[in-house]
Amino acid sequence: MSKARFEAFSDGVIAVIITVLVLEIPLPSNHINSNELFSVLVFLLQ
């Protein structure tokens, strides 16, 4: 296996692992409503 193929493979594996970790994070059920979440996201994107 060439170095470029190995790098691409390892990047893919890491991306899958990170995706699984993110999907496993539970969202808070009643700590924040959608309006508050939207305003926080807008603030962070400025």
Automatic annotation (TrEMBL):
Keywords: Ion channel, Ion transport, Membrane, Potassium, Potassium channel, Potassium transport, Transmembrane, Transmembrane helix, Transport. It is found in: Membrane. It comes from the Bacteria. InterPro entries: TMEM175-like. Its main location: membrane. GO terms for cellular component: membrane. It is a multi-pass membrane protein. It catalyses: K(+)(in) = K(+)(out). Coiled coil: none annotated. GO terms for molecular function: potassium channel activity; proton channel activity. Belongs to the TMEM175 family. This is DUF1211 domain-containing protein. It comes from Silvanigrella paludirubra.
